[in-house]
Specification:
The protein has 18 helices and 16 strands. The chain is an alpha/beta fold and 448 residues long. It folds into three domains: 6-138, 3-Layer(aba) Sandwich (Rossmann fold), CATH 3.40.50.2300; 150-314, Rossmann fold (3-Layer(aba) Sandwich); 318-441, Orthogonal Bundle (Helicase, Ruva Protein, domain 3), CATH 1.10.8.60. The strands form five sheets. It has a five-stranded parallel beta sheet with strand order 2-1-3-4-5, sandwiched between helices.
């Protein structure tokens, strides 16, 4: 980890800001200054400073209030209080709230160096904690399957159990719920984990091409067959075959696959020589196969052969408590991919995303977060960054209450007037005191 942390000095005294700025610059730190708590919060929204030096006595918003806001919104940010000898009690109070250390005025270079050494040590501990936490999450979340809802906890419990057998598994769930991720997790926990995992979307291939892909063909057996090719049923030997949208395959292909599952042999197109195959079959569908069996388009004997074990993956609208976790995961993912410093979503925006029905499930949520990150000009994503969801064909899952309508309207007006309370209160036709009370009551916060 690089010990050269990004630093912001927050002090209303210019001489203090300038002296600390030049000291940190001299030793190669990324450093910025702010003359007030309000300015510091604005800059924190745009750049993730790792360390803040905060004067405890400032007009408007003092150091204690700024500390409380920083710890509430950016809990991993290290805050060091700057105080005079006569304010030691305030410094102690600040450390109870969450400050990591304090620096006494007037300070000497060796005192500042000691404080920085302790801050660097704390940052290393935080880094190691995050690294170990990340490693643990990768182990327990089964290859990016993220959730804390009872439904997902049940699936987490099922995966290692069903992975140990070779029985066929049928994964049920709407499009975008993560059926392939569950299939990969089962393979990764199985004794076949070191062997191939091959996924085929049956709905994306016409029947003749699917047959060739699965069974292979001999040279010259049809136009374009310029050389012999092994099918995936042979290539996957020893591993796991995942057939997505298996409800799309024809009755003939169902018969052919049923024979393979029972005999463990295949014959490529144009050949008469059977070849032994060994693989585990995992299948998935978003269709109601019961109805397909009733109307005669899906064979009952094939259904029972692929459905020894069934796992039903719930749609996102039935596990909305997982949405904040998923948002955080996608923020990290696309923050790294786009190299944009976007790491927060406001409470109001999170509530908006939790109310939305997500017909496209986790895949749609990921797309929404990626779009918002790419287009955002701020470190924080707010309601306006997800405004495109309102014009989506899918409506919000429930009507807003009168209080929610008022809250969103006030937030919108504040954003339109760049949080100029005087102008916003005039637009809302209320006085500034009333607007301040509503901001506090609804816990509104700036999103840009």
């Amino acid at each position: 980890m690089d010990d050269k942390m990004s630093i912001m000095v927050v002090d209303d005294e210019e001489i203090v800001r300038e002296s600390l700025f030049h000291w940190f610059k001299k030793y190669g730190y990324v450093v910025e200054t702010a003359s007030s708590g309000f300015e510091a919060l604005d800059k924190l929204e745009k750049y993730p400073f790792q360390l803040l030096f905060v004067d405890i006595k400032m007009p408007g918003m003092d150091g204690i209030e700024l500390l409380e806001k920083v710890k509430a919104e950016y809990p991993d940010t290290i805050v060091i209080i700057i105080t005079a000898y006569g304010s030691i009690e305030s410094a102690v109070k600040a450390m109870r709230i969450g400050a990591s250390d304090y620096l006494l005025k007037p300070f000497k270079p060796d005192q500042l160096a000691l404080v920085m050494e302790r801050a660097s040590h704390q940052k290393r501990l935080l880094f190691e904690h995050d690294y170990l936490k990340g490693r643990l999450e990768k182990i327990t979340r089964f290859d990016n399957i993220i959730g804390q809802s009872p439904a997902m906890e049940h699936i987490f419990d099922l995966i290692p159990e069903v992975a140990q057998s070779d029985s066929s598994i049928l994964l049920l769930g709407e499009t975008g719920t993560g059926k392939e991720l569950v299939a990969k997790a089962i393979h990764a926990k199985s004794r076949r984990a070191h062997l191939p995992f091959i996924a085929i979307n049956c709905g994306a291939l016409p029947d003749t091409l699917l047959e060739s892909e699965l069974f292979g063909h001999q040279k010259g057996v049809f136009t374009g067959a310029t050389h012999a090719r092994k099918g995936f049923l042979e290539v996957v030997s020893g591993g796991t075959l995942f057939l997505d949208e298996i409800g799309e395959i024809s009755p003939k292909m169902q018969i052919d696959l049923l024979r393979v599952l029972e005999e463990k042999k295949i014959t490529s197109i144009g050949s008469r020589e059977p070849v032994d195959v060994d693989f585990r079959l995992l299948s998935a569908t978003s269709q109601d196969l019961g109805k397909r069996i009733t109307d005669g388009s899906f064979r009952e004997d094939f259904f029972y052969r692929i459905n020894v074990i069934m796992i039903d993956i719930p749609p996102l609208k039935k596990r909305k408590e997982d949405i904040p976790l998923l948002i955080h995961h996608f923020l990290e993912k696309y923050g790294h991919e786009t190299t944009k410093q976007v790491d927060r979503v406001t409470r109001d925006a999170t509530e908006l995303l939790k109310r939305y029905d997500w017909p496209g499930n986790v895949r749609e949520l990921e797309n929404a977060v990626e779009r918002a990150v790419v287009l955002s000009q701020s470190r924080t994503l707010g309601i306006k960054d997800f405004a495109f969801l309102r014009s989506s064909p899918a409506a919000l899952s429930r009507p807003l209450s009168l209080q929610e309508v008022e809250k969103q309207h006030i937030q919108q007006i504040l954003e339109e007037y760049s949080w100029n309370v005087t102008q916003a209160s005039k637009a809302l036709e209320i006085n500034r005191v009333t607007l301040h009370k509503k901001i506090k009551r609804f816990n509104l916060e700036r999103s840009t």
